[in-house]
Design goal:
heterodimer, A: 403 residues, alpha/beta, 6-stranded mixed sheet, 4-stranded antiparallel sheet, 16 helices, globular, B: 269 residues, 9-stranded parallel sheet, 12 helices, 9 strands
Chain lengths: 403, 269
């Protein structure tokens, strides 16, 4: 980087991160997005709103989440010290709830009585159903039909929480199609419905406000590092599907030039096979789901099907701020394969007694490679974005075990 | 003057309203589309909206979603859609053709290449569903230089301030989406549409087409009483779906649906 960019200046007023982001939706939704933008602008610096958010984070979610030194795994890997930011210990089992609490508070201010969400692995769906139950809001969650199959546990959790789960059978039957269907619902029911988007993608102001709510991860991790290790980490590692847990960890460190950052995409069967979900690695800029970003697309601009063992990373796009951070070179984007992620899933479970989500296992697998190249006085913080209970069926099936 | 402006002028002096059918290009396969376009003109189409298929048609209901899937499965691409317009122009030089679709295939081709190709093959206007005026600064000048019309949507939720902005940015005609929802959803309410059109007309001289929720001759007639143009899509595309195994039968069915609307709009008993 020749000139240091101003990280606080993005997005601009139109929601742009450099050439990325923006607001590419059909006209019917523009008024609702303008309303959301105005409400957020008004509330974001409102002490009462912040106090409500902080209260829920502490007493409902259970924050701050610990920063845990994985001593035994560190020894086994050999190299840098590996620390885990334990978002898996949050209420509902993942970082997603940080954002759904924030958006639910916004929804309350709009007076809308119904919330909708898209979900891949089901973590965002569960987190949305949870806040809807708590606030007495009607909740509909759209989920790709294939994901409904591979994430049965979360589907049932959402139903117990009173949400309606709608399997989406169009297109590739995964997260992107769930998002299409949620957009269609929103355009139809825009008067009474608040769309709780689960990641840092979608039309402005979503990438900004989801980032802001998730930044609690990085703010805590920064403070905890200074307190527990007496220094800032040398490297941060997080998995990237849409990229909300990664931006949440990275963003509060962007000005810290000594901290290098690695966003880990889903390499599926291997990026060279074409069966993966790594748009930052091999995609190109285009427009989908309301924002311009890197996409996996054909030469003709059609979105192509993705593949990952992890439903939460199985998405052909990525948040626009990540696209920008890639272009300016502040964050390194890399990928690991399904097999590497599964190996890390097993290893952390056996060595540390912590069962990570398959999404987070991608970050673990890359951090292992990275740690080996670093000396033992260096420190890596991994965002352990979710717990792995939801993935037991997937892992068992690979072991040919019926549960 | 563009073909679109000429067409609306002719209609106005004849005291008639524009009938604007929409079909998805390449549905059920690319070789059928030009024939269907000619059939639509024979049945009374004044302007043709030709859908460019996209893998993720977020603003469309199931009927047009499936049309996109059939079309893409049959190998349709934006390049092929442009070639269809070129072929249509070999026999028809005065019916305006408006491409309607999503931004990404256009981005993938490149705005300038796309604009040049549109002029070359005889496209008159472009409506990109997910491109509001705020994001059109890159595209709009390229289109303006080439006298290509950029058609924008106005929705029931659009505020008057936005109507003014959209009216200033749009050309050719404005497309009023008659209801909150996806294409092919409920039937529209003519009274609330009329009220909104009054507001829009305070801000523009452009003709206003109304679409979404026009299913039959009756709804076409009631809309033509208040709008300058009537857009019909899903009702036609459903006929293509019903005959996907016998695409040669489709042209006659499209003509039957559209003629009934034409007659209803023109007051023919």
């Amino acid at each position: 980087m020749s000139e240091r960019p101003d990280f606080s200046a993005v997005p601009d007023q139109g929601g742009h991160f450099g050439p990325y982001g923006g607001r590419f939706v059909s006209e019917t939704l523009m008024a609702a997005l303008e309303e959301l933008e105005a409400i957020y602008a008004q509330l974001k610096d409102d002490p009462k709103f912040q106090a409500d958010f902080d209260y829920d984070m502490a007493h409902y979610v259970g924050r701050p989440s610990p920063l845990y030194f994985a001593e035994r795994w560190t020894k086994k890997v050999g190299g840098a010290q590996i620390w885990l930011k334990r978002e898996d210990l949050n209420h509902t089992g993942a970082h997603k709830v940080n954002n759904t609490i924030g958006q639910a508070l916004l929804a309350k201010h709009t007076g809308k009585t119904r919330v909708i969400a898209e979900t891949g692995a089901g973590q965002h769906g569960v987190a949305t159903a949870t806040v809807a139950a708590r606030l007495g809001l009607k909740c509909v969650v759209y989920m790709g039909a294939d994901d409904v199959q591979r994430q049965k546990l979360n589907v049932y959790r959402m139903k117990l929480l009173g949400a309606e789960v709608v399997p989406v059978t169009s297109g590739s039957r995964t997260l992107k199609d769930a998002m299409n269907e949620a957009m269609r619902d929103w355009v139809t029911n825009v008067d009474d419905t608040f769309y709780i988007i689960g990641t840092v993608a979608g039309p402005h102001p979503y990438p900004m406000l989801v980032r802001d709510f998730q930044c609690i991860i990085g703010r805590e991790a920064r403070e905890q590092s200074l307190k527990q290790a007496n220094k800032l980490p040398d490297a941060l590692v997080a998995c990237v599907g849409g990229g909300s847990n990664a931006i949440g960890l990275f963003h509060p460190f962007l000005e810290d030039e000594s901290v290098s950052m690695y966003g880990v995409e889903a390499g599926g069967d291997g990026v060279e096979t074409g069966r993966h979900a790594a748009p930052l690695a091999v995609g190109r800029p285009g427009v989908l789901h309301g924002n311009r970003t890197y996409l996996m697309e054909s030469d003709d601009g059609q979105i192509i099907e993705t593949h990952s063992v992890s439903a939460g990373l199985d998405y052909p796009g990525v948040g626009p701020e990540h696209a920008w951070l890639k272009d300016i070179g502040r964050v390194n984007y890399v990928s690991v394969t399904d097999d590497e992620a599964l190996k890390a899933f097993r290893e952390l479970t056996l060595v540390e007694g912590i069962m990570p989500a398959l999404e987070s296992s991608h970050a673990l697998a890359y951090a292992e490679k990275l740690a080996k190249k670093m000396s033992s006085d260096k420190m890596i913080v991994i965002n352990l974005s979710g717990r792995g209970d939801k993935d037991i069926h997937t892992v068992a099936a690979l072991d040919n075990i019926q549960i | 003057m563009s073909r679109i402006a000429v067409r609306f002028q002719q209609l106005a002096s004849a005291g008639r309203k524009a009938l604007i059918p929409f079909i998805t290009a390449g549905d059920p396969a690319p070789e059928h589309t030009v024939g269907y376009m000619h059939a639509l003109v024979e049945a009374g189409a004044d302007i043709i909206e030709l859908g460019v298929p996209f893998s993720d048609p977020m603003a469309d209901g199931p009927v047009i979603q499936l049309a996109c899937e059939r079309s893409l499965a049959a190998g349709t691409s934006l390049n092929k859609v442009l070639a269809m317009v070129a072929e249509f122009r070999q026999q028809n030089n005065d019916t305006p053709v408006v491409l309607m679709g999503y931004l990404n295939p256009v981005e993938a081709m490149g705005y300038e290449v796309f604009a040049d190709r549109c002029v070359e093959v005889g496209v008159d206007g472009v409506l990109l569903v997910d491109l509001p005026p705020e994001e059109s600064q890159l595209v709009a000048p390229l289109f303006r230089e080439r006298s290509l019309d950029l058609v924008f949507l106005i929705a029931p939720t659009t505020t008057e301030a936005r109507i003014a902005k959209i009216a200033a940015a749009g050309s050719g005609y404005l497309y009023y989406v008659s209801l909150k929802g996806v294409t092919g959803a409920a039937t529209l309410d003519a009274a609330s549409v009329a009220a909104k059109l009054d507001t829009i007309r305070k801000h523009t001289q452009l003709p206003i087409g109304v679409g979404f929720g026009i299913k039959d001759a009756d709804s076409a007639r009631s809309v033509s009483a208040i709008a300058d143009g009537v857009v019909v899509g899903s009702a036609l595309v459903q006929r293509i779906a019903d005959n996907a195994d016998a695409p040669e039968k489709v042209a006659e069915q499209l003509k039957a649906v559209l003629s009934a609307m034409r007659n209803a709009m023109d007051g023919v008993q």
